[in-house]
Amino acid sequence: NKEIPISILIKDDSNKPIQSFDTVHEKKMHLFIFSKDLAYFSHIHPNYKGKGEFAFTTKFPAGGDYMLLSEFTPQGGGDPSIESHWVQIEGKTAKKQPLVPDQKLTKVVDGKKVTLSFEHLMAGMTVHMNFTISDAASNQPIKNLQPYLGAMGHAVAISDDVEKYLHIHPMTTEGNGPKVTFMTVFPEKGIYKVWGQFQQDGKVFTVPFVIDVEK
Ligand SMILES: [Cu+2]
After folding, report:
1. FRET label pair with 174: which of 42, 148, 182, 183, CA 20 to 30 Å apart?
2. Residues less than 5 Å from ion ligand 1, measured at CB
3. pLDDT tens, 29-67?
4. What is the pLDDT of residues 71-126, one digit of tens each?
5. Calpha distance 68→44 (Å, rounded)
């Protein structure tokens, strides 16, 4: 619960700082923070200071282990690099939250009712994940989503052992809601936590689901 300044230095194989990074989805770096039990999630855009160094400050909600996972693309480097690092935060730890698959894939977040649906939810094959968003109070479909970081939404999925990570962008966007479809392949069966992030009226909302991917 204290603001902690953190810097990340990106070096190449010969230990030299990488100087230039491509802007991808409007940012040079996308950083995700997960608590070990995946109860806590944060998506941050560190500032690029130059000479390979990115910096940000953040507050961790409790003591314990957190994974910092960054995505960045060295200029001319093609696919994004994904690097992760565990940090240990001092202080009183939170009670570990068990990761249990949701029985009902509908959540209400910030006045929005969000339903997640799939055609097939199996490892190793293409999965279409549909997020359907309505106004929780009026039950009316939301049709005025705004692009968030250059897409109609972003989704991140991570396995319960915090080993397998997926950053998923929507397929061709049809309008501005109420349905946003993402396409991905889960590499292995197991329990994953998924966070969908969308924007309406200039505000980002994040909706989490815990899903069980079959073999
Ligand atoms: Cu980002």
Report:
1. 42
2. 30
3. 999 999 999 999 999 999 999 999 999 999 999 999 999
4. 999 998 788 999 999 999 999 999 988 999 999 999 999 999 999 999 889 999 99
5. 10
Instruction: Say which CATH class 106-213 falls into.
Output: mainly beta
Q: CA-to-CA distance for 132 and 153, rounded, in angstroms?
A: 12
The answer to whether domain 4-89 and domain 106-213 are alike in fold is yes
| CATH architecture under which domain 4-89 falls | Sandwich (2.60)
Ligand 1 centroid to residue 9 C-alpha, Å:
18
Q: So where are the chain's domains?
A: 4-89, 106-213
In whole angstroms, give the CA distance from residue 21 to residue 10. 10
What separation in Å is there between the alpha carbon of 138 and the centre of ligand 1? Answer: 31
Q: Are 162 and 80 in contact (CB under 8 A)?
A: no
CA 71 – ligand 1 centroid, Å = 8
Residue 65: CB partners within 8 Å, gap ≥ 6?
35, 36, 86, 87, 88, 89
91 sits in the region (left: phi over 0; alpha: psi -120 to 50; else beta) called left
Residue 209 has pLDDT above 90, yes or no: yes
